[in-house]
């Protein structure tokens, strides 16, 4: 029997003062997602899901994206924070919502457990 896939929501700053700073935040989230996947968790990385949509859909307000990503987070088993989360009001809101929803938040990658089901995928 295959175990249920566990979802890890990647939370961290998205916006930056420049496009390059925003791109660096997306790359940081991508690296955290890779490390989380290597521990057997399926990363849910909103940075990668909606990067650049503020230009593709400029008529949609920020709240549309914030509400949508919070809904994604509520479906996850854990939340993992990216470096710089302390400077992100959006990430701080995600941490509060995770607490309200009883979703564990990991501040350090070393604390995230390796899932047993990982051996199903690695040969």
Plain-language structure description:
By secondary structure, the chain is α/β, with parallel strands linked by helices. The chain has one domain: Rossmann fold. It is 43% helix and 11% strand. The protein has five helices and four strands. Strand 3, helix 5 and strand 4 form a beta-alpha-beta unit. Helix 4 packs parallel to helix 5. The radius of gyration is 15 Å and the shape is globular.
Key terms:
alpha/beta, four-stranded parallel beta sheet, 5 helices, 4 strands, Rossmann fold
Please indicate the count of domains: 1
- Tell me the CATH architecture: 3-Layer(aba) Sandwich
Secondary-structure element order, N to C = EHEHHHEHE
Give the low-pLDDT segments: none
- From the helix content, strand content and strand pairing, which structural class follows? alpha/beta
Q: Main β-sheet: number of strands, strand sense, barrel status?
A: 4 strands, parallel
Write down the CATH class. Alpha Beta
Number of strands: 4
Strand content: 5-15%
By CATH, the topology is Rossmann fold
SSE arrangement:
Blueprint: E1 7-11, H1 19-37, E2 42-44, H2 46-50, H3 53-56, H4 62-74, E3 78-81, H5 89-100, E4 105-106
Helix pairs in contact: 4-5
Could you write a compact summary of the structure shown?
The chain has helices spanning 19-37, 46-50, 53-56, 62-74, 89-100; strands spanning 7-11, 42-44, 78-81, 105-106. Helix content is 43%, strand content 11%.
